[in-house]
Amino acid sequence: MYVVAYSAQSWQSDPQERTMPTNYPAFLIGGPPHSGKSIFSYRLSQLLRRQQVPHYLLRAAPDGEGDWTRESEAALARALRDKRPYEARFAERVARVLASRPQPFLVDVGGKITPEQETIARHCTHAILVSNNEQDLQAWHAFARRMGLQVVGLFHSRLDASDARCGSGTPFEAVINLREKVPVAAETVLAEFARQVADIIGLSADAMREIHFEILPDKAARILDVERISPRWDPAMLPRLLAEAVLPARDHQALALYGRAPNWVYAAVAAAAPTLAWQFDATLGWLPVQAFAMTEDESPHAPIEYSLTIESSGWQWLRTRPKPPFIAQHEIPHITLPTVPPMFSLVLEGKMPHWFYVGAARTYAAHLSRVAVFQAQGSGLVVEIFGNEVGRVHNLRHPFTRQA
Q1: Where are the domains of the chain?
Q2: CA quadruple 52, 53, 54, 59: dihedral positive or negative?
Q3: Regarding the domain with residue range 26-201, which homologous superfamily does it belong to in the CATH classification?
Q4: In sequence order, what are the residues at sequence separation of 6 or more whose Cβ sits closer than 8 angstroms to the Cβ of residue 239?
Q5: What Rg do the C-alpha atoms of the chain give, in angstroms?
Q6: How far apart are CA 75 and CA 79, in angstroms?
Q7: What pTM was computed for the model?
Q8: Bridge partners (DSSP) listed for residue 312
Q9: CB within 8 A of 308, min separation 6: which ones?
Q10: For residue 280, what are the β-bridge partners?
């Protein structure tokens, strides 16, 4: 059975028995350019996930990277990368996300010490520094101290050396090889450091889940924890998920969606379940589910921009990107989507948060007979999330890339 759901009421406890945390740790991961910070951040995050330590890896540099760039074929990752200039507005939005973070964060920042970095650092609690030269490492160490951050890790990035711990003191210091293809399982030094980060976070995944469930606004909602159902998802699992866990809602009971899963899982639930009322976002917390308005013309006030292309196979592709980085909750209701003629099928694509795919799936499922979602990992998947073949992977060429 796929049914792993909870009543929000069952997670309520005596408020005198639990103190709700108000400021989770935020680890700034800093260092000079080309030192391997993004690879380091990804590998540390993967190790924390294996230890079931709750956290979110925030990419706080506008280089267009994310976990998907490490998990996609290189040519596809290059084609889809959306690099933007580093400016004050970007740093201010990152700072706003950090100020109200709903869980512990790893914060992968840019490689230069600037006023924008100070804006971000003010909302962090700890620092992990990665550098390929000693002079820059000392400059970043001084920056972290000046910003009042507790430095918990110093890593000397080398391409021609094996991982090795430098002594046993505090902060944790090591030489680390940040080649792209080093297997996570072999990273004993980084795994040791990950355990120290876990101790600082001081929360298990179950404890974090309980805190999040307690603050769900609708205490009568049924919570569908997709990560508990399966830590790894295959598109072929969608029909059973919808049949056993989503559609048998009792008495129109509101449904709340929680847990880490691909964008097409969230979109499929939204398209199938009219009772889906809430979803948990890793940066914004609980959000109400809402469909978006459709218009013939793109609104200049909407916080997203999009492009629409028609393929000869009868599919239209809708590519979206946020205008401002990290769209705020109050901006979400202003999103508008283009009208798509009902004779077409639609693929949703773009580096957007899950709440967007939830809203877009709900919008287009009410007007079209078939909707799919593109996932960038691997060679790219086009997964049908609404229609007669939910869970089918369609063999469609991505029209926005230059791939042959």
Answers
A1: 26-201, 215-386
A2: negative
A3: P-loop containing nucleotide triphosphate hydrolases (3.40.50.300)
A4: 390, 391
A5: 22
A6: 6
A7: 0.89
A8: none
A9: 316, 317, 318, 319, 338, 340
A10: 286
